[in-house]
Amino acid sequence: MKKKILLLMGCALFFFLPFLSAQESAPAEFALHDTPNNAGEQVELTFRPLASPDEMPAFLLNISIGENPVRVRRLVNAGKLIILPLITRQAGVPVTVDVQGELPDGSLVDLGSVNVVSKGEWLNMNSMKAFILGLLFIGLIIFFVRGAKRGQELFIRKIPGLEAIDDALGRATEMGRPVFYIPGTSTMADVATLASLNILRPVARQVAKYETPFSVPVKDPIVVSVAQDVVKEAYMAAGRPDLYEDGIAYLASMGQFDYSGAVSGSMVREKPATVFLLGMFYAESLILAETANSVGAIQIAGTDASSQLPFFIAACDYTLIGEELYAASAYMSREPLLLGTLKAQDILKGILLVVFILAIILQLIGLDFFMESFLNPQW
Amino acid sequence: MMTKDKNVWYEKLLAIPKPVIYIIMFFVVALPVLFKMQVSTYVTDEVQRIYDHMEQLYQYNQENPDNKKAIFIAFDYDPATMAELDPMSFATLRHAFLRGIPVIAWSGLPTGVDLGEQDMHLIAKDYGAVYGKDYVFLGYGYPFVQAIIALATDVKTFFASDKAGNDTRDLPLLKNIYNFNRIGLVFSMSGTSYPESWVTYANGLYGKMVVTGSTAVSAAKYYPFLQTNQMVGLMGGLKGAAEYEQLVERLEKELNGSDVRAYLETLYDGKDLSQYNTAYYTPEFTPEEIQLSLARRNTARQGMAPQATAHFYVIILIIIGNIAYFARMRNNKR
Amino acid sequence: MKRQLPVIITFIFAVIGILLQISPIMQDRFIDPINSWIASISSFAVIIGLASLVRHHATKIRRRHKDQFFSFVTFTALVVMATVSIIGYYHPNSLWKGFADNLYRHIMVPLNATMFALLAFYISSAAYRAFRARTWLAGTLLVSGFIVMLGRVAFGPLMIFGEVTNWLMLIPNTAAMRGIMIGVGLGMVATAIKIMLGIERSYLGGGE
Amino acid sequence: MGMFLWMTIALFLTLAVFSFLFRDNVIYKFAEHLFVGTSVGYTIFVSYTNLFLPRVWNPFRRALGDGDVLLAVWLGLGIVVGFLYFSRFSQNWSWVSRYPISITVGYLTGYSIIPSLKARILSQLYGTVVDPAGDSLLNAEKIGTFFKHPTLHNFFFEAMAGPLLVFGVFVVIVYFFFSLKNNNPVVRFSRNPALIYLMVAFGASFGYTFMGRISLFIGRMNFIFHEWWPIFKNMVSG
User: Fold this and answer.
1) What is the CATH number of the domain that holds B181?
2) Beta-carbon separation of A226 and C53 below 8 A
């Protein structure tokens, strides 16, 4: 809508300019600003031609940035507002732009010059709202974790798919076939991987108790070492350190498709009864899920990658959708600290929903300020 | 729940073994590929417009042989979207080389630089186009906006050397054609949002006509630009590529005769081979290369048919599965 | 030393990460040095991964597993690929470089592409299995999947499916994915904060 | 000839992988293990030449050469921290490897907090109140368009598009509340609509991706029938 108005205004200008120019108005408006919220690596030139293209077909900008030689840029007069970023690379660089207009006969007229010194900012105001929201979140989490530590009862609703875990493990034991646990194919810094490792702990404990063969093929080198620690600790906790070996969690390969090739290979050879696919997945999700299905395994999947969820939903027996994966990790560990953060998360979500609804209502009756000040990430 | 009779028709249909599904899938895709089945797609308006604009450019160049206009191609894609976008670049380059329209190009993505350069040499070889005279690949156009603005004055100041390391002032093509004044059409091939930036700058600032080649997924968002004429043409996905390919092939047959193989075999006979720098390509064809070159002429169209058959195959599978499922339900209720 | 110090280090580096995000000047000055640490750490991590892989296959060979021959294949391929590529890197005009290119183009690329292409088969068998109207929910999945598949190759009178596909992708798909994304975003930030505050320590592994 | 040999190897590997669709076999096993080996070898090569040399080792040497002691010490420390990973090889010292892990995890999570809040939460909610042009999604004008021209297209694409989007986002968010009991009225009310939205979305994305996956397979078929086969035929015939 706004664009259209601008366009209309542009057209209007275009038609009325011949009359306006009789009053000797400037052929162009231009200004040079420091670009806000950066480290001073660029400044911006805003340029609006006012003369019609017939009178002044083009403009010449003589740009000098710091010590660099003057560069000449030719702008064809298209009658539109132009914002031109000029790279200074660092703060404290003086920038000068001399503007000349080119007349139809090719002669030049001086239109004046503008200058500015680039400067950097310590604070990026466009990140401030997110930062404040983050602080609020930290406060909520600390508050609820304290409450949880004091033994406050925190309710979490049942998550479908979690009850299936016990049955699936029991089934593997009955059939005497192994359990595969795939903690996603991403790195340690991915939240889904962390959530998956949290679920790996109770699963490994159960597996150790049942003495079921267990295998954790991993793709990322750092996740391997952490997974080994987690499995080892779980076997100790279950009182079966004798069953543990370092080879349970191993690096199957480091690339996307060689990993899925290797894992599907071992699935077909070892015929697991249960396969867990929890964590972050990319295109390989369906290769793993379908191979698991073809060897007759029960698949319990979960990921926060929305592009892979459809495949898990279609191919797997149970799927934890998005956030359910995180909630499951808190639910399974039953640790008050994790439950506390889940509660904090729900509260913040509630607050955001209320703000969201208020913003919609107020926006409808014409009060934009609420939405602009609370939801627009720009300052 | 009654006991299942494994021999009832619907039980059999409900449990089609996977290998059977796979084998049929294999044939459903392989046969159209093998028999070079081509869906002759009707040419949509937005692709026809690209072709027409190129032909207008050719007309203009015929009338102004000393003042030829070039086209500009931005290879803004990387190997991940190559399958869909390469056929478009091929068809565009073919059309340009067939009509002797000079081509200037760069890539806006660091991972697309090698790809774009290779594509250009590959197609240039089919028509004996000479690097530096008929086409130039500048390299990595970065920072994006600065690079576009450089095209408004003199691109040689921005690119002191091209991708291959030549001084841009030594390239004959860039002596005459170095800015937007002499560029007729701007192509942006991309799966990213780069075409929007091309519209903003090349069209918005300098009034250039922009043509976009995009992946099928992102094509939908460019239609608004077509309506406002900010883009004069659009190739979306394999289908768009196939349409343009079809138009260019018709033109090629018209100009070079219908026997493309013979044309390629004799292309370099009796030509002055000293003008070709073997660093870009060797001016002769091995039998393998002729094969590959022939196959490259209709990659997009040959992709279309198996694409459609595969979709219909799965749709039929789904229907069969559901019919069998309902038959079982009805039987169980009785 | 074993548990407390890593938690403190995590906190410090998390705060550094946040500061870099909110301050353009600090980002300009410090991001390269910090990233060089991350680069160094990740390049050494590759060696740890390599060790795990080697151990996995060495165990197979030592135990005279029936597949031990294939573990030799892996070892040979690994050593050849790494050495040839690195020699080719230092001598770009030698035969080694050509050999490395061929290894990449005619072994890595086709294997990668074909493994990826297996998805064409898996996606059809998954569709056959999952797209059945068992419950009304599965029915919704079926109907929308069916329409979109038709819409993608629609022509002539079926073009209506193309329209509907557009709408499905534009409205319900955007809405659901956005809802998931907002929830996941909150969960991600919550986990990040938990890690920063030392509440979540599973990334440190087990042990004391 | 050399080219043909390499292409035949590629063909063999392609068929080897496809053979896995029917059952596991020796040829697939060979291809799989070859793949793991080459790929890990390639990863080593890439992380040495694209990560270690340009981002760690060369800056370090340059800093030493320039006499920038502070930077050199910092970069050297980075290398030492990387070295701490080797403690994994010892039973008693393996906890030392937690330091590099905590540095990467701490830095990367801290760095991700603000962008996640901005891009995944604030921008998404904002985009559900107004569209990119700045119009409300619950725009009365658009509903008016439908009443002026009551076509199905106008109904779905103009009048109902915004409201359905807003409603969908709302119910899906509510669906993922974990601390409310299942009999809470809001939860009960939004549960079924949310499930419909989710299932429609999953079905649609599944169908939408199908084409891309088929393209990959067509690519392999093209390689076999249009690249390898003609060359083979030529070799045989002459």
Assistant:
1) 3.40.50
2) no
